[in-house]
């Protein structure tokens, strides 16, 4: 998927493997979740990266904001740590309805403003 991103004054396009509403599985930490936003590259602090991103995933590739199934948290995950979740099962998270209106064919739809 190609997504336009506003970086400074120039509009640039980047390729993201996943998109908002898509249900994913975290390969390293074995949890399911739904993507709510995509950054074209790492947008966190160097301190967070050093403390949390222990596998040192690339900063210059897409990173995703993910609502975690059965846990009321949002994670920030590098693309290389994610894979599609083919279960088609809903994500149990208190904020799902703030972002999406329905689950259809294994993907959340009806992006709502947040």
Biggest sheet: strand arrangement = 6-5-4-3-7
Major beta-sheet overview:
5 strands, antiparallel
Range of helix content = under 10%
Low-pLDDT ranges: 1-11
Q: Quote the CATH topology.
A: SH3 type barrels
Number of helices: 2
Total number of domains? 1
Total number of beta strands: 9
Tell me, briefly, the overall form: globular
Provide the gyration radius in Å.
14 Å
**How do the SSEs run, as a string of H and E?**
EEEEHEEEHEE
User: Mean pLDDT, rounded to whole units?
Assistant: 88
**Considering the protein shown, what is the CATH homologous superfamily?**
Hemimethylated DNA-binding domain
Coarse structural class: mainly beta
CATH hierarchy, class: Mainly Beta
- What CATH architecture label applies? Roll
The termini sit apart by 22 Å
Strand content: 35-45%
Concise synopsis of the structure shown:
The protein is mostly beta strands. The chain contains 2 helices and 9 strands, in the order ββββαβββαββ.
Structure in words:
It is a single chain. The longest helix has 7 residues. The chain is mainly β. The protein is 10% helix and 39% strand. Strand 3 and strand 4 form a beta hairpin. It has 2 helices and 9 strands; from the N terminus they run E-E-E-E-H-E-E-E-H-E-E. The chain has one domain: Hemimethylated DNA-binding domain (SH3 type barrels). The chain has a 5-stranded antiparallel beta sheet, with no helix packed on it. The N terminus is likely disordered.
Features:
114 residues, disordered N terminus, mainly beta, SH3 type barrels, 10% helix, five-stranded antiparallel β-sheet, two-stranded antiparallel sheet, globular
